[in-house]
Amino acid sequence: MKDATIALHYGYEKDAQKTMNVPIYMTTAYEYQDTDHAARLFALEEEGNIYTRIGNPTTRVFERRISALERGIDALAVASGMGAIFYSISNLVRAGDNIIISQKLYGGSITLSTQTLKQFGVSAKYFDPQKPEELIELIDEKTKLILFESIANPALTVPDFEGIVKIANEKGVVTICDNTMATPYGVKPIELGVDVVVHSASKYIVGNGSAIAGCLVEAKHLKEKLKSKRYPQFNEPDESYHGLVYTQKFENPFIARARLALLRDYGAVISPFNSWLLINGLETLHLRIKAHSQNALEIAKFLQKHPKVKKVNYPFLEGDENYEFAKKYLKFGGGILSFELDSYEEAKNFVKKLKIFSLVTNIADSKSLVTHPASTTHQQLSQEELKAAGVPEGLIRLSVGIEDIEDLITDIKKGLD
Ligand SMILES: *Cc1c(COP(=O)(O)O)cnc(C)c1O
């Protein structure tokens, strides 16, 4: 099956009602046939429904589809993108371990890695995702993972996938790629050798900004890596399941442990209703992401020629600092771009004049959004700190929607007048 067909049909077995749209199983629990059946389910001898905290039939359809689209062996949906990143990290680390993260990451992933995890005895080191050779020095025997983004939010950096994967594989360290911005249609990190893909499904996957959700996807090749001494929790008996050893019992040890141990105990489960929204979002993702990218590229080209614009950042714009890796690894540039005006005042005035773009700190809605980081997300920083963070005070970020391109350009023209 090809991707567009997977997105519409894969992983849904119709029940007695034969509903075309995947039903929403809004239920906490499920009835067992008898006590023997219940005992087999609890002993993991048979697969089946137990309790929605660790699995739900609606959610399962979404998990199968995103796993197939990312070329994984299995997936787990959770309550948010940050939840997915937390589960993927905490599945691999113990107190005393360290992780390596890209300098160009989503803000929440940075604070999670450098502040919150520190309180549990896990430390973080930075690397430049376009200079993977830095990893050679950074990796030690306590290093459990390398986390980076396929297109960084908000920096738009495209990583050197092959360089990162090569060194990580030589050292036996797990790679995690946040593929929120590129989507599985822009790049399939698992095909490039990455071990785990995570998503904030709140963005392009749900598509219309209607739900917070996230997911993790495991590559088939991860199992071999997890068999090493570096990852004892996958090779030693889990006392909470009568001595179960994940790499012996499962072909998908990473997702199995995330579901059976982490989701069971942390409990940040996705609502079946939100899973249903994600299923509906996936059905049109391939059409939307192309439209987002086409519109964004046209706007980037328009802005590049405008006399009031100092600089445009978009990975698929010729001459952009990410152009080379973008052309090598990505099918298209995505819907997010940024550009620089002369001053804080000019940026503020631009935002004020827009009619179609809404001032919102979110990305990847089907409706166009605009942010001015210096007055919102980065407001606490001084002029020097803004510069160091790569956020000039006149920087504008656009999340380009799928409206008519002529209307969008007219709106931007008026904003720049
Ligand atoms: C939004 C976002 C997240 C966080 O996702 P939530 O669903 O808001 O928790 C993580 N990574 C990236 C790249 C994002 O854009």
UniProtKB/TrEMBL annotation:
InterPro entries: Cys/Met-Metab_PyrdxlP-dep_enz, OAc-hSer/O-AcSer_sulfhydrylase, PyrdxlP-dep_Trfase, PyrdxlP-dep_Trfase_major, PyrdxlP-dep_Trfase_small
Xref: NCBIfam families: OAH_OAS_sulfhy
Assembly with partners or alone: Homotetramer.
Keywords, comma-separated and alphabetical: Pyridoxal phosphate, Transferase
UniProt superkingdom: Bacteria
The keyword Flavoprotein is annotated on this UniProt entry: no
Annotated positions of the N6-(pyridoxal phosphate)lysine modification: 203
UniProt source species: Caminibacter pacificus
Pfam families per the UniProt record, alphabetical: Cys_Met_Meta_PP
Needed cofactors: pyridoxal 5'-phosphate
Gene3D superfamilies: Aspartate Aminotransferase, domain 1, Type I PLP-dependent aspartate aminotransferase-like (Major domain)
GO molecular function, one term: O-acetylhomoserine aminocarboxypropyltransferase activity
Ranges annotated as spanning the membrane: none
GO cellular component terms attached to this protein's record: cytoplasm
Record family assignment: Belongs to the trans-sulfuration enzymes family. MetZ subfamily.
CDD domains: CGS_like (cd00614)
Protein name: O-succinylhomoserine sulfhydrylase
Annotated GO biological process: cysteine biosynthetic process from serine; L-homocysteine biosynthetic process; transsulfuration
